[in-house]
Amino acid sequence: MYLEELPDIVTEEHKIDAKVLIRYGKVMDIVTEECERTMCFTKAYFHYIEGTGSVLQMNKTLQKSEVFQSLESTDDDLDKCEIWKNLNVRYFTSKEIANLHHLPPDFSFPKEITRKQQYRLLGNSLNSHVVLVLLRFMFS
Description:
Layout: H1 8-14, H2 18-24, E1 30-31, E2 55-57, H3 64-72, H4 77-87, E3 89-90, H5 94-100, H6 115-122, H7 128-138
Parallel strand pairs: 1-2
Antiparallel strand pairs: 2-3
Helix pairs in contact: 2-4, 3-4
């Protein structure tokens, strides 16, 4: 499993503000933990929104299609904020991205590396398992 068991404070740090979701939500790649694909995570992940990587929907009972239908039925920003809050969308942590890239379970960054630096280092990385399979194929 690639997701971490996160304390509430970390989950809050990674939540995406409803105002950001109102503006960019329809162009974001929102995935659930059951999804088998994500967009490429770029070095700008967590700091820019469009095209920098997938985000995670934490509400397992709500369907994205229901949310988008509800959003179409209102022009009020306060209503839209509430609709987006129900979806409970957050950024992946850097550890979760490392897990998606199939880095070893004990992989971690040194403590002096900031979160921004972690995302930059992981951005545009390749899944290490895929690289291993390709190298074996190329040299066999």
